[in-house]
Design a protein that fits this description.
There is one protein chain. The chain is an alpha/beta fold. It folds into two domains: about 170 residues, Medium-chain alcohol dehydrogenases, catalytic domain (Quinone Oxidoreductase, Chain A, domain 1), CATH 3.90.180.10; about 130 residues, Medium-chain alcohol dehydrogenases, catalytic domain (Quinone Oxidoreductase, Chain A, domain 1, Alpha-Beta Complex), CATH 3.90.180.10. The protein is built from eleven helices and 16 strands. The strands form three sheets. Strands 3, 5, 6, 7, 8, 15 and 16 form a seven-stranded mixed beta sheet that branches. It has a six-stranded parallel beta sheet with strand order 11-10-9-12-13-14, with helices on both faces. Strands 2-1-4 form a three-stranded antiparallel beta sheet, with no helix packed on it. Strand 13, helix 9 and strand 14 form a beta-alpha-beta unit. The radius of gyration is 20 Å and the shape is globular. It starts with a strand and ends with a strand. The structure holds NADP nicotinamide-adenine-dinucleotide phosphate. NADP nicotinamide-adenine-dinucleotide phosphate (NAP) binds next to helix 1, helix 4 and strand 10. InterPro entries: ADH-like_N, ER, GroES-like_sf, NAD(P)-bd_dom_sf. Keywords: NADP, Oxidoreductase. This is Zn-dependent oxidoreductase.
Length: about 325
Amino acid sequence: MREIRFDRFGSPDVLTLHTDAPVPEPAPDEVLVRVAFAGLNPLDFKIRDGSSGRAEDLELPAGTGREMAGTVIGAGSDLDEAELGSRGLTVGTRVFGMRAPGDGRGVAAEVIAISADDLAPIPGEIPDEDLPRWAGLSLVGLTAIATVRDTAGIEEGETVLIHGGAGGVGQLLIPMVLEAGATTVLATGRSANAERIRELGAIPIAYDTTDWVQEVQHLTDGRGVDVVLDTHYHSTFLPSLDQLAGGGRIVALPSLADLSPALQRGIEARIPAIVPGRDRLDRLAQGIRAGRYPLEVSEVLPMDEIAQAHHRLAEGHTRGKLVLEISG
Ligand SMILES: NC(=O)c1ccc[n+]([C@@H]2O[C@H](COP(=O)([O-])OP(=O)(O)OC[C@H]3O[C@@H](n4cnc5c(N)ncnc54)[C@H](OP(=O)(O)O)[C@@H]3O)[C@@H](O)[C@H]2O)c1
């Protein structure tokens, strides 16, 4: 079968498409999935270049990709038909999901073995043309839930500033922050993405054509915001500390973000951690189905363009999601 692997950390060129990879054997609690599409994330290039904490214990050669959508084609010995049925994961069911944080195996392969706990069924009425969106949903969706609910604890009536509102996580943060009761949501992005940010329900701030700090001050009548959710971090984290109203808090998304400038000033600052789980995947499925989380796929690339896809991810201007076609 076809599978993308890399045998050393480095540039995107270390990613190689193999055509003779062995089909994996599922462990007793695992399901075998024929992958249709794999979602791509900045985490993928950080693991590939070795800069992610996740790269530390990774055995090479390794696969790439964390999340996908596909079809159940088999299961391990603990998962008989009745057990699969009780989970809604019988053979032939379309599923989506992501590897749990502790599972370093990739998903960019025609067939993968993955824990049944890390999958959820895709509702039957969803057309196959929509599968790329489901492939790109779980990692950003679980991140947005962890950010809004577990980490920021957004409350009714708060004013929230999101940096990177048109990115993968940003496109789910906006609707989830509104669902949590925020009354005003400001979101930065390039002017080309302003309309998308507005469609999602936030007030766009075009950081490439205006001074975003002045805009935040203007839009909040000089009060500042209660919460900053910073998916960009690099050039936004430090100036954001001065945009917080008294008692405000900041959440930085990159796992290796340095929070100390905030903590030294007594500002509450945190980094979210994904909590996997079927209940959360089901909640994402319901949100997409009901039209509440209109996550956008900006591009679907073939497997042999994985190196270009990683270059694109690293540029940091992905709109919504980049997705890889595996056997869709
Ligand atoms: N802690 C965790 O568990 C966790 C989980 C998932 C992701 N993450 C991290 O979260 C970050 C975001 O992930 P993602 O998937 O959303 O990335 P992404 O899809 O690449 O989106 C990043 C967004 O940042 C925006 N951006 C770039 N420069 C900016 C600037 N100067 N000011 C404001 N916005 C800017 C871009 O929008 P424009 O094109 O409009 O500039 C882009 O849409 C990554 O570092 C990722 O590794 C952490």
